[in-house]
Amino acid sequence: MAAADADEKYELITRRLQEVLGGESIKAILNEGRSPKCYWGTAPTGRPHIGYFVALTKIADFLRAGVEVKILLADVHAFLDNLKAPLDLVAHRTKYYKFLLLAVFQSLGIPTSKLTFVEGSSYQLTRDYNLDSYRLSAIVTEHDAKKAGAEVVKQVESPLLSGLLYPGLQALDEQYLGVDFQFGGVDQRKIFTFAELYLPRLGYAKRAHLMNTMVPGLSGGKMSASDPNSKIDFLDTPSTIRKKIKSAFCEEGNVADNGVLSFVQAVLIPISQLRLERLQGKTGVDSEEGQNATGEQTPFTVEGAPEGSVFSIFRKEDYGGSLHYKTYDDLKNDFAEKKVHPKDLKTAVAEAIVKLLEPIQKAFEESEEWKTIEQLAYPDPNAKPEKKKKKEKVYHPPPPGKGKNAKAGEGEDGGEVVEAAVEVAKSEGS
């Protein structure tokens, strides 16, 4: 592979990342003409929210650069993470995640010929994996295990042993998935450095690690699936989306911990850039597959936006007219200087999210199988259990001469019984 081509792919793989550990190993693979292999893992616990777009738009860059991507649906990890979900629900949620992630990539027009899904339980229950887990347990201190999982494993007063196993299992995944690098949020950094330290001690290769920045939730702090006010579900209605964005924390002039502004930076502008690149014919390793995008494929701009604009904020002429941006920094500076009002920014972001989710929600509505899986994966917690139907009594007529309506003289000894009853009644009345 030509050096220029390798450099171009490396730029695509690493752009917009917060941190890269071991980037030289990825460069070496590209210079050899090989396709790097990576994995990104997600534990199918809560309902996935639009914060997932942050990772998925970056994975889109990997796929376009020819990287072989494995998405680990970490069902065993989901169960271990403080018992967030029982195993029967995890199985349904794993299927739900797969439906959703494929719909997202299709909506973005991302080639998926080099994308595979792997369920953790397909190899994490094998003899070799478990032996390696025991080997790790023999050399990892409790301090290191707890420190490694501090940012991702739920911290409770009486931590479970499963939380200490979590970082080691994630490290072993790199070996058993056969990848060159692992990708995740910067909150995974301690687990990544844990893997770099301990995998070589088991005789395995040290991998590279690529990290995205973390995007704040709508109410400030981390975007969490367990906090419905901090995130927007992929299936939320347009009215719900607008309502959540309207109530989001977005203080005028404040560019720190601003979930609305950060979402523009991490998701909307990268997708606009992706769409502009598609218009230029830059769709990735499989140009034909990359053209099969669903839904609207124009940048998040309004009519009259200058060429190269990636985000617009509509405003009436009475208020100065619409604003158009070619870079995030320009938008950030205008917001910091209070040239952009939070209400106008929120309106633009809400409408962009509604358009972004339209093709995904359409795919959901057209798939009976996906809708069935959704109900099984996330049953309504307020649904009343169905009342058990009472068994219907079946009338069985008594044999002849039996029962309350039997006539005297019918059946064996029937007449004698009646006569005896009459005699008793007479004696009691005298």
From TrEMBL:
It comes from the Eukaryota. Residues 290-300 have a biased composition (Polar residues). GO terms for biological process: tyrosyl-tRNA aminoacylation. One of its GO terms (cellular component) is cytoplasm. GO terms for molecular function: ATP binding; tyrosine-tRNA ligase activity. Residues 282-302, 374-417 are annotated as: Disordered. Belongs to the class-I aminoacyl-tRNA synthetase family. It is found in: Cytoplasm. InterPro entries: aa-tRNA-synth_Ic, Rossmann-like_a/b/a_fold, Tyr-tRNA-ligase, Tyr-tRNA-ligase_arc/euk-type, Tyr-tRNA_synthase. This is Tyrosine--tRNA ligase. Keywords: Aminoacyl-tRNA synthetase, ATP-binding, Cytoplasm, Ligase, Nucleotide-binding, Protein biosynthesis. PANTHER family: TYROSINE--TRNA LIGASE, CYTOPLASMIC, TYROSINE-TRNA LIGASE. Pfam families: tRNA-synt_1b (PF00579). Its EC number is 6.1.1.1. It catalyses: tRNA(Tyr) + L-tyrosine + ATP = L-tyrosyl-tRNA(Tyr) + AMP + diphosphate + H(+).
